[in-house]
Specification:
The protein has about 400 residues and is α/β, with parallel strands linked by helices. The chain contains 16 helices and 16 strands. Bound molecules: 1,4-dihydronicotinamide adenine dinucleotide (NAI).
Length: about 400
């Protein structure tokens, strides 16, 4: 059966295929799991919906699900991370795709709606977008065995629904598996954030005062890589343990009100909304660069920045100069969206090899076991361990056993 799709340009297929082909060789654990699940038929004929940053690595995961016999319905999870060329390849290869680079919020809601209407049996979600939509239209969840959630912000949303008794479906928290957040959130975001910042600005990181808001898994990775590039790191935190940990790791720790006066580059990594606000923006040095590595587009108060500014100009692709009436300027990267993906290439393929192996195994787990009660569930330990051990094998590393 031909796929149904609504994408920007099907003729971009060849470029998308080149990108997917490249990453397919860098994801050995995912390939191994695909071989392992090939014979058991768990995915055969099942409808799987996927809402995630639609670029080459995720596209490859969609094709693996298709290869295993699933009917796959895919959309993006951020308008600027969607790559139109890989969407074209997916559509050509039989995945039902509804995604456009730069889509408006309203049209993205329609794209999510198209996925709901497939009555999915399992959902791969990023930031709980489909999950929230499904709670508005629970009738589309009648066949659903559960969600498999990719990121910290999505897990927070699920827990919020659960704690208020409103969660209607089971959800597995891939983000919380050790093989995910220890590597993806930390090393993946660490490297790809700075790849994106240097690509967007063509400026040095060495010698700069880099202020990182939030010293969780993402903040730690962003700090480690910036330090390796010669930056002077300043951490702001609310959690006293995390703050002390940053101090013991050798970084300067201070309140944001002090950090805004001396920072050259600011990266938000809290997962929460409105952490960098008017009172901070107004106190920054002229020429400061600000970007966000968290899932939410709302960590930096961009509407407030716009209100304070006399003019806004795109001075390089995806770099916006906000000029204040007193002739000072601040540069916003990727419009305050998740900078490593909306302004860059996303995580390295070897990192997503682990995250997406967990996703594949979690979807397999949801589909092969009896439907659970609504609730938030951890990834089974044996899946987490299987993924990390396969990764060690793929890297040619042996370790001792008890
Ligand atoms: P986390 O929960 O480990 O860390 C967040 C940290 O921010 C906590 O230590 C918290 O105390 C701190 N925090 C909260 N409010 C703060 C404030 N106002 N000022 C300073 N610190 C504050 O979460 P994690 O895993 O580090 O994720 C952070 C965000 O990054 C989430 O939105 C997550 O979904 C997203 N993420 C992004 C990725 C990417 O590719 N860019 C990859 C993985 C996660």
């Amino acid at each position: 059966m031909n796929a149904v799709y609504d994408i920007t340009d099907i003729s971009l297929e060849d470029e998308g295929r080149r990108k997917i082909e490249w990453v397919s060789h860098k994801m050995p654990v995912l390939n191994k799991l695909c071989d392992r699940f090939q014979g058991d038929g768990v995915f055969r004929g099942k409808t799987v919906a996927v809402s995630i940053h639609l670029e080459a690595k995720t596209a490859y995961l969609c094709l693996i699900l298709k290869k295993l016999g699933a009917e796959v319905w895919a959309t993006g999870s951020n308008p600027f991370s969607t790559k139109d060329d890989v969407c074209a390849t997916l559509a050509k290869d039989g995945v039902n795709v509804f995604a456009h680079h730069g889509v408006s919020a309203e049209d993205h809601r329609k794209e999510l709606g198209s996925l709901l209407k497939s009555y999915p049996q399992a959902v791969l979600d990023d930031g709980a977008d489909i999950c929230m939509a499904m709670h508005d239209f629970p009738e589309y969840g009648e066949r659903l065995n559960g969600f498999s959630e990719e990121t910290t912000t999505g897990v927070l949303r699920l827990r919020q629904l659960e704690s208020t008794g409103k969660l209607l479906f089971p959800a597995v928290t891939v983000n919380n598996a050790k093989s995910k957040h220890l590597f993806d959130n930390r090393y993946g975001t660490g490297q790809s954030t700075w790849t994106a910042v240097t690509h967007l600005t063509n400026l040095t990181i060495g010698g700069k005062k880099v202020v990182i808001l939030g010293y969780g898994w993402v903040g730690r990775g962003v700090a480690t890589v910036a330090q390796g590039m010669g930056a002077h790191i300043i951490i702001t935190e609310l959690d006293p343990w995390k703050a002390l940990e940053a101090h013991m790791d050798g970084y300067e720790v201070m309140p944001l009100a002090d950090a805004v006066r001396c920072g050259d580059i600011f990266i938000t990594a809290t997962g929460l909304e409105g952490v960098l606000r008017t009172e901070h923006l107004v106190a920054m040095k002229s020429g400061a660069l600000i970007g966000n590595a968290g899932h939410s587009d709302l960590e930096i108060d961009v509407p407030a920045l716009r209100k304070m500014s006399q003019s806004v100009k795109e001075v390089r692709e995806n770099v916006y100069e906000y000029r204040f009436p007193n002739d000072r300027s601040i540069y916003l990267l990727a419009d305050g969206r998740i900078v490593n993906i909306a302004g860059g290439l996303g995580h390295p393929a070897e990192i997503l090899d682990m995250s997406f192996s967990l996703q594949l195994a979690s979807l397999h787990f949801l589909l092969r076991t009896p439907k659970r009660k609504p609730g938030v569930y951890e990834v089974p330990k044996e899946i987490d361990e299987l993924v990390v051990r396969q990764k060690l094998i793929a890297e040619g590393i042996e370790i001792d056993r008890k």
